[in-house]
Design brief:
single chain; 41% helix; globular
């Protein structure tokens, strides 16, 4: 058994998820979650991440170091608060640029974690998959296969973070995984601009709005949705520039206008997920959802409606994986695999030509 701190900051760029885990690698991969905390990103760091395009090389280098130092302090505070002495840290880092199959760049220098927590750190997970021809994403299918696969039911694991991604878990056959499109990213950006909030809480804004069917059709014509997997996306496709373009032709001028845009964006996210499942896993009987998006009641209701009665929609809580902690747990497991020399990419999900070890090990 290895005591691992799993760290994840996603495309929403709002918090560091810290999962304190006891991981068993053999005879099968398993995990017991000891504790979980989401530590809010300091305002100054968040401001720099929101303004990445204006940072020069020196600014990016300083941000890399600042994030690493803050990761170390936040992780140590959570671990100490629970009397948890780690053997290992798995740190995903903060993605600042991702170009599928070409480059994936995460900030958060791991040396500070290794020094502060006095244990090895595994980081930079995506580059190993890219080096063997993969997209560098998604990486969680390895974990989903280990923890959620059943031999008697076709399942899909869904994570709704800034981006929505799925792992297809057929009862028999190859596991696949890919990004289906935006998760919370467009919704959160609209909430910031229209309501000075970080998200559409409980989906209340969308619930008060009316979907613009013509606008929804335009959004659904985005070529990413029709592209075949393996595929991955990020802020480069569905971030602030996407929202700028969408709002530019007809800017909202009232609260109701903003609610209508939220309703349309929420329908876009739900339909992108449903289309991805219908196209690539039509036999799905159970959809297991996690990530911050499951807190959006309007989004979940819209997704259930678009999936239809043949698919059971539930959260990962029902499977012992808290919805907010699942991704951080995943990187704790991937780190343990790297320490034990176990390849952890899924070539059928990323397009890699072979299995590969994921992550660099830093010791100080």
């Amino acid at each position: 058994m290895v005591r691992v701190v799993g760290l994840m900051t996603g495309t929403s760029m709002d918090a560091l998820d810290v999962a304190l885990c006891e991981v068993t690698v053999a005879p099968k991969l398993a995990c017991r979650l000891v504790a979980f905390a989401a530590v809010a990103l300091p305002v100054g760091l968040r401001a720099q991440l929101d303004d990445l395009d204006r940072l020069d090389l020196a600014g990016l280098a300083r941000l890399d170091e600042a994030l690493g130092r803050w990761f170390a302090e936040a992780a140590r505070a959570v671990a100490t608060g629970h009397g948890f002495t780690p053997d290992l840290v798995g740190s995903h880092g903060q993605t600042v640029y991702h170009e599928s199959g070409a480059v994936s760049w995460q900030l958060g220098e791991p040396s500070f974690l290794a020094a502060r927590l006095a244990c090895p750190v595994v980081s930079h997970f995506r580059q190993g998959d890219i080096a063997v021809g993969g997209a560098g994403a998604p990486l969680i299918p390895f974990v989903d296969r280990a923890l959620l696969h059943r031999a008697d039911e076709d399942r899909v694991a869904l994570n709704i973070g800034g981006i929505a991604n799925v792992t297809l878990l057929p009862a028999v056959g190859e596991v696949q995984g890919f990004d289906v499109g935006p998760g919370n990213m467009i919704i959160d950006e609209l909430a910031r601009r229209g309501f000075a909030d970080t998200c559409d809480r409980d989906g209340a804004g969308a619930a008060a709005g009316v979907v613009d069917d013509r606008g929804l059709d335009d959004l659904l014509s985005d070529p990413f949705l029709a592209a075949p997997p393996p595929k991955s996306c990020g802020r480069e496709q569905f971030g602030p520039a996407f929202v700028d373009h969408w709002l530019g032709a007809d800017p909202p001028t009232s609260r109701q206008d903003w609610c209508d845009r939220l309703a349309t964006a929420t329908a876009f996210t739900a339909e992108a997920i449903a289309r991805g499942i219908r196209a690539h896993a039509p036999g799905t009987r159970r959809l297991i959802a996690s990530g911050g998006g499951v807190r959006n009641l309007t989004l979940m209701a819209e997704l259930a409606r678009r999936l239809g009665n043949g698919v059971v929609l539930e959260t990962s809580d029902a499977h012992g994986l808290p919805v907010d902690a699942k991704e951080a747990i995943g990187f704790a497991l991937l780190a343990a695999c790297r320490l034990h020399g176990i390849p952890a990419n899924v070539p059928s999900a990323t397009g890699a030509v072979r299995s590969a070890l994921l992550g660099r090990i830093t010791r100080v």
